[in-house]
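Hi W., the S-adenosylmethionine complex you wanted:
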Amino acid sequence: MSRLLREEKNGRRALLTKNLTPGKRVYNEDLVIREGAEYRTWDPFRSKLAAAILKGLPDDVVVEGGKVLYLGASTGTTASHVSDLVGPTGLVVGVEFAPRVAREFVEHVARERMNVIPFVADARDPSKYAVAKVDVVYCDIAQPDQTEIALVNCSMLLKKGGTLLLVVKARSIDVVKDPAKVFEEERAKLEKAGFRVVRALELSPFEKDHAMLHAVRRD
Amino acid sequence: MTETAPGSADFEALRQKSIEAAEAAIREASSRPDLHLVQAIQALDDTDKYLNITATRASEWYGLHFPELIQMVQDNVGLCKMIAEIGGREGYTAENLQGRGFTEKKVAAILEARDRSKGGTISDGDLSRVKTLASLAVQLSAIRGALNDYVEAQMKKVAPNVSDVAGATIGARLMAKAGGLDRLAMLPASTIQILGAEKALFRSLRTGARPPKHGILFQHQAVHMAPKWQRGKIARTLANKIAIAARVDFYRGSEELSLKVELDKRLERIKELYKEPPKRKPETRERPRREGRPPRRDKFRRR
Ligand SMILES: C[S@@+](CC[C@H](N)C(=O)[O-])C[C@H]1O[C@@H](n2cnc3c(N)ncnc32)[C@H](O)[C@@H]1O
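Structure:
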């Protein structure tokens, strides 16, 4: 059975991830029991990855046993759900360079979860956290040059055939209308760097002006 | 890269090491680098004052001996360097005037002035006292430079967005006035706009004089280079962006925004909209004097 559950609650779709640390919360999410196991509710309004999944990102991208490099871990809200998804045989390398938010990430996520390795480091310098080749690079660092940063990380740490999930912030309103067109530039950068962009998911109504690019590294 | 399987003992050791390193980095950051910055910017401003006083005294004293040189050399620190290194008037040669940024013509003029100087003689004792003062000024200028570099570099790390919109030194002065990045992040834009103009503000409350339009922000070139009637608007726009920047820097760490681009756009608009001075004749009520630190003179600016 998958570590991700999709549910329909009062006509609204909801996501649950199987809690790697039963009995423990990371923030103020709900803990619920499904078929004898504990799950944590995953709010798409608080997490862009959850939003992307509800908007069509397939379940087989972040899978049990997978290794994920998470850039921009922040306080670890999303990273903790990724940790649930990859489970005890998986790995999450979390990178965050702002100490104030990294504190919560280390305390509440990395210390508690044996599949998480934290780094307080700048994502521009992957040599600081090169501990494993990964299946997925997840990048949400809200920097103007984040596509370049993501690509540097991929070339050093992403396995061939691996996946890049890149959160892109739209800069104007018509992005919302036609994301494919506006994200062309970022898409072109990825294609040029040897990636195939599988889909561009616009994240409304969960996030305004955001999209997620799903790209796969060519062999 | 050692590939160790999650769950293995090696993996757990690696994980613990990373956690410890991360916690050490966090501890270091919680040593409040902003408070060190606040001290550094104040030390920088203090040093500026000492430098001015010391260099002025040295050059005035030396002027009794070689008044023409004081007239010819505008750069006070450069002048003090010459006093400290060359000493008495007779010591000036084409060689030791090299490498001080003078044109050949200037060098010739200095040498000529040396020969026809109207200055008096100076005893060895007095000369050595002047030289001591002059070399103190040179040292202060080096200290000032180092403090300035530190403020610029630290502001980029501690408050990158504030540094971006306000400039490193003005941003640091605002932080100093507020008492730290945390306090600056809590201030409303209207307060930031007049930080450093407290005296004028209280006077205006007391006497009904016009409230100040800017304090420290007057030092920002977008404000002081603008025509008078635009300054209040520009200061307000600037203060708005700084308030946002401070909050992002404090609460969200170092995420970078494009505040500077937005700011420049708004400033352009103000310049267009208020190109002409207002028609209505300004009231003739006595204007309160501007408070706060005067704009920095360029003389001691590095670069
Ligand atoms: C939009 S937040 C990420 C939110 C997080 N993904 C979540 O959903 O919970 C972006 C984070 O990236 C961090 N960041 C920005 N630039 C970075 C860089 N160059 N290296 C590492 N982290 C960075 C910021 O400090 C911030 O915490």
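Residues 172-177 of chain A have pLDDT under 50 and may be disordered.

W.
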